Amino acid sequence: MAESLFGATLAGLGRIASEAGLPAYGAKQLSDWLYGKNATSFKDMLNLPRRAREWLAERYTIDTPGPIKATESQDGTRKYLFPAAGGGFVEAAWIPEGRRATLCLSVQVGCKMGCLFCMTGKQGFQGHLSAGEILNQYRSLPERDSVTNIVYMGMGEPMDNLANVLESLEVLCAPHGYGLSPSRVTVSTIGLIPAMREFLEATRCHLAVSMHSPFAEERRRLMPVENVYPLKDVLSVLRENPLGRQRRVSFEYIMFDGLNDSDRHAREIARILEGIRCRVNLIPFHPIPGTPLSPSPRERMEHFEQELKRRSILTTIRQSRGLDISAACGMLSTRELVRLRGEPD
Amino acid sequence: MVSTRSAEGLRLRKAEVKSNDQIAPGIFRLTFPRDRDFIPGQTLALTTDPAISPRYYSIASGANDALFEILYDLVPEGQLTPRLARLGAGDALLVSEELGAFRDADGASVWIASGTGIAPFASMARSGMVSQKTLVHGSRTLAGLYLRGYFSSVLDGRYMPCCSSETAQGVFPGRTTAWLASGDLPAAERYLLCGSSRMVVDARDVLISRGVPFSRVVAEIYF
């Protein structure tokens, strides 16, 4: 099967341009067609010699499939299901909010990390998305032109697919790619430290770390990764590598009723984050089937927010979006998998 | 000791391979001298070259054994394991310091493993932690039930091998999760799970659906 050229970085395109007999600037020409003009066929690339176009068409494709399913929430959030190699599906969510519109995209089909509260993990791990498959969730989004911010917070762990994530970020943020400012892009992680270090060095994008509990014993029951990369080590890395003023680190904190929403938790969060310029995002839990966890009541979340703010931690409560369209990440794709396999939902 | 760093910043030291044997189709047992202390349940990151991303493997040997022992699955299309599989006695290997906090304590526990996820429990048992421990080990093949004779002996009736594609006397015919769902769950203070994310997530769901509080379940996932 021919390889898709969509998603290739300038360096990759340079190698291919050279093989195709194009001059040195051929890589930028290809990049302009792929990401500037959204070409879908080599035939369209009329400023390339015909022989080079034919050579490319014999060896490569430009694979940019549109979403196979879309659902829209009453609040305007839209979820899209994209096909992935190997027969799986990934989700992308377009979340409009006033003058902003955020695209939440996926990096893997399924996930290996096994977090207790996550629906995607229940699919198991089916594969990494290529840089092209990650970028295509932006390229083929019907609302692409309205997108102001991109968050890598959909299915999968970005640091577990770092090479493809970095390539996709390069194309997203480079002038010869889509030209987005890195300050508009946030990549999340549960804290895979070696890859997180590499990410911090290689990009200028924001980082979001999934915390969910400041206590190691509690966190390891929610997130097996705590056994390998404890939160305290993640925080040490962030202290050793300050992100500077243009970059932001945020801590994501899903709030579970009676589990991680006490004043004791707020005090401990403030203690362990001392010295790190950051913000904490409190996230309402969207229950998933069979979960032993339940969401914290709104008033508890507001009290928790005040407790953190009182300790000088910049804190926001994220709004629940798309509750009526299987908002929890992984729900839509899992339902599609179940439907295709003919299993009871 | 001379050390180097992987591309991701992991500090790695050289070790000399003592043995590297295929113990079942696609499953290898690698040993090299133990030059550091560790706590049973911890992992080491291994690679053959600093340019190749190290991968994490649970230590399978006991805390006082002379050699570190690692179990790994050969992934033919992988970057690292085909190289690991070519190593022989005397070859050099790059090894990280011991990492991780997947630990057990005294008292009743149920250990649930799939495939090479048996490693941390082998390390715990070989370090003397066998009292009140129950082991459920799943494998696709009988050959993959590593240390079956050993665990049958030291756990004395508290060892349940499960095999999904072959049958044998004393081996449950099916997946680990099927065994967990089928009968009375052993009473335990803790349930420790180790193996593929698929098995861990499925087994944890079965335990929770059968009334085990999630706070008693600790998982180690291979990624």
How would you summarize the topology of this molecule?
The complex is a heterodimer of chains A (345) and B (223).
Chain A: E1 3-4, H1 10-19, H2 26-36, H3 50-59, E2 60-61, E3 69-72, E4 78-83, E5 89-97, E6 100-104, E7 108-110, E8 125-128, H4 131-139, E9 149-152, H5 162-173, E10 185-189, H6 193-202, E11 206-210, H7 216-222, H8 231-240, E12 249-255, H9 263-272, E13 278-284, H10 298-310, E14 314-317, H11 331-341
Parallel strand pairs in A: 1-2, 6-9, 9-10, 10-11, 11-12, 12-13, 13-14
Antiparallel strand pairs in A: 3-4, 4-5, 5-6, 7-8
Chain B: E1 3-5, E2 11-16, E3 19-24, E4 27-33, E5 43-47, E6 55-58, E7 67-73, H1 81-85, E8 92-96, E9 109-114, H2 119-126, E10 133-139, H3 148-155, E11 159-163, E12 172-173, H4 176-182, E13 190-195, H5 197-209, E14 217-221
Parallel strand pairs in B: 9-10, 9-13, 10-11, 11-12, 13-14
Antiparallel strand pairs in B: 1-2, 2-8, 3-4, 4-7, 5-6, 5-8
Average predicted confidence as pLDDT of chain A: 91
Q: Major sheet of chain B: size, sense and barrel closure?
A: 6 strands, parallel
Q: Number of DSSP strands of chain B?
A: 14
Spans of chain A of at least 5 consecutive residues whose pLDDT stays below 50 are none
Low-confidence stretches of chain B: none
Corresponding CATH superfamily of the largest domain in chain A: Aldolase class I
**Which fold name corresponds to the CATH topology of the largest domain in chain A?**
TIM Barrel
In helices, the fraction of residues of chain B equals: 10-25%
Number of domains of chain A: 2
The level-1 CATH class of the largest domain in chain A: Alpha Beta
The radius of gyration computed from the alpha-carbon positions of chain A, rounded to a whole number of angstroms, is 21 Å
Order of helices and strands of chain B: EEEEEEEHEEHEHEEHEHE
